[in-house]
Prior knowledge:
CATH class of the largest domain: Alpha Beta
CATH topology of the largest domain: Rossmann fold
GO molecular function, one term: CoA-transferase activity
Pfam families: CoA_transf_3 (PF02515)
Keywords: Transferase
Number of domains: 3
Organism: marine metagenome
Largest sheet: 3 strands, parallel
Protein name: CoA transferase
Oligomer: single chain
Amino acid sequence: VNKSDAILESFQPGYLDSLNIGFETLAKINPQLVHTSMTPFGSTGPYAGFISTDLITSSMGGMPFVSGDEDRPPVRISFPQAELVAGSQAFGATVAALRHSRNSKTGQHVDVSEQIAVMWTLMNATPFPQLHGTDVTRAGAFRKRGPIDARHVFRCADGYVSMNAQAKTLDGFIRWMSEEIEIEKEILGFNIDKWNLKPDSDPNGKEASEFKKVEKAIESFLSIKTKMEIFERALSAGLLVAPCNTVEDIRKSPQLEARSFWIDVYHPEFGKDITHL
């Protein structure tokens, strides 16, 4: 403890105190010590002692509520996002506490809650009740924009791509379309910066109809392009479009290949090499 700058742990709240090696005890030995605790619900409060899993803390943080299709139950991301996000926030908070410790000669207890860590990932949703008087809801392949559901996943020639069609880069995408196909003047003149669609706008009004026409043109244009064609143009022109990769796409990624992400390991029980991370 005397030689340590920080301790990071994920025991249940109170466990280290029961062993007489909690923060208060260790701080007497090393006043500059930073003690970071990562727990499902934090070290205090009525839920502090609850046992949890990533599914529970993700749900309590609100992530599944905005994940999935509107007409189906909420879904979770299969990878343990709550734990990973909490870990990254614990890292950042620990570094900040270490800087404070070196400047003030005083350590502190960094209390990281997985539930709150998940809430910090929902900055696209949490302001809505205060700003617009409504909640962001699940929209699947779409995204709520005022009264309309704007498409975010588009079919292309060999799969799907994800595109933010309401971003400022839409102008660049319209320019790309105009280079290769003839498009209507109304679409060519569409300016996303001047598009003023509000939560209470008419879903069949002028602003909504204009965007739906642009979206239809994008849908038609992307349907004849491959994922790689779209991605290469996105990279060169700074467009917010990316392929929805399959496992096979990831396996063939030139970026991962260049970084030797995949290696072949011989398995005697199979009598051949098997590709691993």
